[in-house]
Specification:
Its cofactor is Mg(2+); Mn(2+). The chain folds into 4 domains: 2-22 and 49-90 and 325-383, DNA polymerase, domain 1, CATH 1.10.150.810; 101-109 and 171-320, Reverse transcriptase/Diguanylate cyclase domain (Alpha-Beta Plaits, 2-Layer Sandwich); 399-502, DNA polymerase, Y-family, little finger domain (Dna Ligase, domain 1); 548-693 and 701-815, no CATH class. The chain is built from 30 helices and 18 strands. Helix 16 packs antiparallel against helix 17 (373-383). The longest helix has 34 residues, at 659-692. It binds a DNA duplex (9 and 13 nucleotides) through residues 42, 45-48, 51, 54, 57, 129-136, 148-154, 193-197, 339-345, 372, 374-375, 395, 397-405, 407, 439, 441, 449, 451-457, 492, 494, 496, 528, 716-717, 720.
DNA sequence: ATACATACC
DNA sequence: TACTGGTATGTAT
């Protein structure tokens, strides 16, 4: 039975084109009528044709999946079931209901702002955006089926009286800043997801709040109304733009056990419960911005997100922190509501007869055979109502891009100049953030909506217009050539830059240490497996230490700079251009049938680009004095650092302190540095361990999955193993994150023990570098042990120099 | 490393 | 007339 597979093309296709009515404010619409209008308006357009094509591709994927499903044997299924149960048990064990996570989301944000600022709009269906694309719509308009991501011209067909207001980002950003100030009062580490949305961890706030006096929980109405006797609730509503007719409404604080009641007047006292705290936050948002927000309260992020949608607009919903409540809540939840499951996943799951989370749970064995490991793990977590209980710190950006849609562009000169413009914009943005990246990607969309990306990675990071354009132009040229004599008929072009080398400085090596300094957590905040890890006491402690150490280093640097004001120092290499001469792609750049523009090209760029060398490969920057040391020899560099350290401590203590004190000052620095490293590494390694074994320390989830041998997976969809695995081996091969040596054990405890030893070894090294004769943790079994714990980054290839460390390993400990 | 697809706002 | 733009991540090669 081909149950679920779209019986007709039309029907299946609707899922892609049709109105998405699972969002708030869309209940009880005339769906069929709306869909008919959407389809009729779209039909025959290039966009429509392309969507059809993409839908076919999804259908093919589904067909393939169904074939795969048909080949599954009982045996396989049973085995898979066992596997799923194992993982499931481990996940269950890791369930943490102790956190109170809140997801806040402004109601129809852009539209609400525009309505607030233009009362004329209040009673009208309106949307923000353009005839080509809408960003959001108000609740009036939603009744007509008008919604975000719908082109304005279609929206107009649905609702001819629709008023479309152009975007005004600066305004939204300003409002966003206002609400973020409020968020920070409840969770200083809140995570903004966009201008109008954020996750907060209320746990700590609530603890504090229990001891707060009423006065601290009292908040005033911003505008004193003429009729002060009115009930607070009513007043709140009057302040808000008319977004809701039949909205659940936040304000009527249910007279909960703690609901301290709102006295009539110009203020309200909020209780100490979660609900009260969240209600208070929303109240303050409304008072401050005259805009309403909705919120979800749950024990993890995934659930909080779903909850915030539940009583939208201007409402909130709390899911109690019990396993039972969570499981009940999940049962009938449509999979599409879950963050991360979009149109396509939904359609594939539907094809398997899965539309709700309970189905998901029932079909896990099957899903584990048909989907990638990451995918089915996600499904499994969702089906158990699990999600992240830790709100990760805002991570550093990984890419930056700019793209533009326009009327057909086919002339080469115009394409080139547009490309240049994009590069200019991008370079400007890069400059603002002081970024440099190694990979430049060109994105093209032709008039048939077909998208292409072409990328090139340079040996060194770049940032300037000329550097970026030099690459983008070559990529574009190549595409033009490949298509010729036909022209490229473009409707969109974009340029992206990624693979950032470093933030403030250009040295890749510098990144870790500077990032560490700034974030107080080094790069580990970037690591993918960080997400579930709660910050440890240890890393908190680091902050203080590292500041004292690095602050002194900074002071030292300033001193030196002052002293050497006249000397060359900075200038020479610092801003040297950075394109390597190997950059130019081997494509036949000249000699072709291109208009002169292509070969004419800014030769200065070329010249500039090809003559400049990778400066970062020539020098290292001292973490103490922050000056460049012109050497590639790490021993030399380490000697320099040692000198700097002793200089620094001597200078600091100069005259005022005795020799012994100075001695101890030096020692203190060293110890601090060691401690910083120790803690940081511990933190990192902990997290690396948790990649193998993600759930808070114990019980192996990933381990199980690592052990999993691909069961079915003939063609694609092979389970990705964490480590390359000898095909015969009976288990995973663990690689120590510290010494990078392969540990051939299947026992996680043994492996963890090894890692701990390795870490301790490092600390010992750090503390008594001169005296220590290495105390090697005996690798459980190692392939090429020199006995030294020389670390090597698993992912980012370090410059060779770091690898080829001599006996002194100060540096590789320092950086990374 | 590159290309493409999916997802989110 | 007209179907975005910015970022991240997963999957396949």
């Amino acid at each position: 039975m081909e149950n679920g597979v779209a019986s007709t093309k039309e029907e299946g296709f609707l899922s892609r084109m049709a109105l998405n009515d699972n969002k708030a404010g869309m209940e009880g619409l005339d769906r069929d009528k709306i869909n008919k209008i959407i389809m009729e308006t779209s039909k025959g357009s290039k966009f429509y044709e392309n969507e059809l094509k993409r839908d076919q591709q999804v259908n093919q994927r589904i067909t393939k999946m169904m074939l795969q499903k048909a080949r599954i044997t009982e045996q396989q299924l049973k085995k898979a079931q066992a596997q799923v149960e194992k993982v499931s048990t481990a996940l269950e064990k890791s369930r943490d209901l102790s956190r109170v996570i809140v997801h806040v989301d402004m109601d129809a944000f852009y539209a609400a702002v525009e309505m607030r600022d233009c009362p004329e709009l209040k009673d009208k269906p309106m949307a923000v955006g353009s005839m080509s694309m809408l960003s959001t719509s108000n609740y009036h308009a939603r009744k007509y089926g008008v919604r975000a991501a719908m082109p304005g011209f279609i929206a107009k067909k649905l609702c001819p009286s629709l008023v479309i207001v152009p975007l005004n980002f600066d305004k939204y950003r300003a409002v966003s800043n206002e609400i973020r100030e409020i968020f920070a009062d409840y969770d200083p580490n809140f995570q903004p997801m966009s201008l109008d949305e954020a996750y907060l961890d209320f746990t700590d706030h609530l603890e504090q709040r229990q001891h707060w006096p009423e006065s601290t929980r009292t908040h005033h109405f911003h505008e004193k109304k003429a009729e002060p006797s009115q009930e607070a609730v009513t007043e709140v509503r009057e302040l808000s733009p008319v977004l809701f007719e039949d909205s659940p409404g936040s304000s009527p604080s249910p007279v909960g056990p703690e609901g301290v009641h709102a006295p009539a007047g110009d203020f309200e006292v909020f209780g100490t419960s979660v609900e009260e705290a969240v209600r208070e936050m929303r109240f303050r948002i409304e008072q401050k911005t005259m805009l309403t927000a909705s919120a979800g309260i749950a024990p993890n992020m995934m659930l909080a997100k779903v909850c915030s949608d539940k009583n939208k607009p201007n409402g909130q919903y709390r899911l109690p922190s019990t396993r039972e409540a969570v499981m009940d809540f999940i049962q009938n939840l449509p999979v599409r509501k879950v963050c991360g499951i979009g149109k396509v996943s939904e359609k594939m799951l539907n094809a398997l007869g899965i539309s709700t989370c309970s189905h998901l749970g029932q079909q896990m064995a099957l899903l584990s055979l048909l989907f990638s490991e990451t995918a089915w793990h996600h499904f499994l977590e969702v089906s158990l109502g699990l999600g992240s209980t830790y709100i990760p710190r805002h991570e550093e950006r990984k890419s930056m891009s700019t793209e533009r849609t326009f009327k057909e562009l086919s002339k080469v000169e115009e394409q080139l100049s547009l490309c240049r413009e994009l590069c200019e914009d991008l370079a400007e943005d890069m400059k603002k953030e002081g970024l440099k990246g190694k990979t430049v990607t060109l994105k093209l969309k032709n008039v048939n909506f077909e998208v292409k990306t072409r990328a090139m990675t340079l040996p060194c990071a770049v940032a300037t217009v000329d550097e970026i354009f030099a690459v983008a132009k070559d990529l574009l040229k190549t595409e033009i050539e490949n298509e010729s004599p036909q022209p490229l008929r473009l409707r969109l072009m974009g340029v992206r830059i990624s693979a950032f080398a470093s933030l403030d400085d250009k040295k890749p090596l510098q990144k870790s240490i500077v990032g560490f300094l700034q974030s107080g957590k080094a790069d580990c905040s970037n690591l993918p497996w960080r997400s579930k890890q709660r910050q440890t006491e240890g890393s908190q402690a680091t902050v203080g230490l590292q500041q004292s150490f690095f602050q002194r280093a900074h002071v030292r640097r300033l001193q030196l700079e002052a002293a050497n004001a006249a000397t060359k120092n900075e200038g020479s290499g610092e801003n040297a251009p950075v394109i390597a001469n190997t950059r130019t792609p081997a494509t036949a750049s000249e000699n072709n049938h291109l208009p002169p523009d292509l070969s004419e090209n800014p030769s200065p760029v070329q010249a500039h680009a090809s003559t400049s060398a990778c400066e970062e490969s020539e020098t290292l920057t001292c973490p103490v004095c922050f000056r460049k040391v012109e050497t590639t020899d790490l021993n030399v560099f380490n000697t320099h650092i040692d000198q700097c350290l002793s200089n620094a401590s001597q200078k600091t203590n100069n005259g005022t302190e005795s020799d012994t004190e100075s001695e101890s000052g030096l020692k203190k620095d060293r110890e601090e540095r060691a401690a910083v490293n120790k803690l940081r590494r511990r933190h990192e390694a902990q997290e690396k361990k948790s990649k193998v074994n993600p759930q808070k320390g114990q019980s192996s989830v990933k381990k199980d999955s690592v052990q999993k041998v691909s069961l079915i997976k003939d063609d694609n969809k092979t389970a990705t193993l964490q480590e390359p695995q000898p095909s015969n081996s009976k288990g995973p091969v663990f690689v120590c994150p510290v010494c990078q040596l392969t540990q051939e054990t299947h026992d996680l405890a043994v492996f963890n023990h090894h890692v701990d030893l390795c870490l301790n070894q490092e600390v010992l090294h750090e503390l008594g570098r001169q005296t220590s004769s290495s105390i090697n943790p005996s690798p459980v079994k190692n392939s090429k042990s020199t006995g030294k714990c020389v670390r090597d980054t698993p992912s980012s290839p370090p410059s060779k120099k770091v690898k080829s460390l001599g006996p002194c390993n100060t540096i590789d400990k320092f950086f990374r």
